[in-house]
Target: 6-carboxy-5,6,7,8-tetrahydropterin synthase
Amino acid sequence: MHIRKLFKFENAHVVRNCSSDRCKRSIHGHSYQVELILAADALDHGQMVYDFGLLKGHIKDIIDSFDHAITFWDKDNPDYIQACKDFSARWVSLPVSPSAEQFSRVIFFWVSHILKQTVMQNGEQDISVYSVIVHETATGYAQCFAHDIDNPKMGLLDLNDFEFSEQVKAEWGDPLLFDKLKNGEKFYNPVVDLQVK
Model:
């Protein structure tokens, strides 16, 4: 069974090396919508794949890192990168281009790691990310599946290659969220007192 949760963020970027002059030469922004689709073959004690309320914690925080931020490719011009850091309190550095395709891969990658490191305590079983869809405009989106994550033709993803501004980290529920993720630390879902057995 699949469930879908919608997230939104406003983000600015430049997409280097693309065909459109406007996109590759000028900072511009989009109102993104992200569809996170989770899958499981069993339901938890609440008869859910995964309680939507649980997605309002670390997963929402990590996706919200992009909101009102400028996102750049860490291979871009060093002067441009420094200007982004100097003139924006909220920024995210990616090891890949900030295209809709890569946003979908990055979010899939991050959320998968969070779920793998989460101790489930209400009967949740084998929760996985089925797909991530990132709508960049009203007419265009990119969709990522599991086989896209470890595909070297799409760029390698490693948790150590992402960087967030201090302002982004300060606005997470846990400012050490990404450090804990990189260190493989466990996250804990709440223990539920079962009302019906």
Q: What stands out?
A: The CA atoms of residues 117 and 185 lie 7 Å apart. DSSP finds six helices and nine strands in the chain.
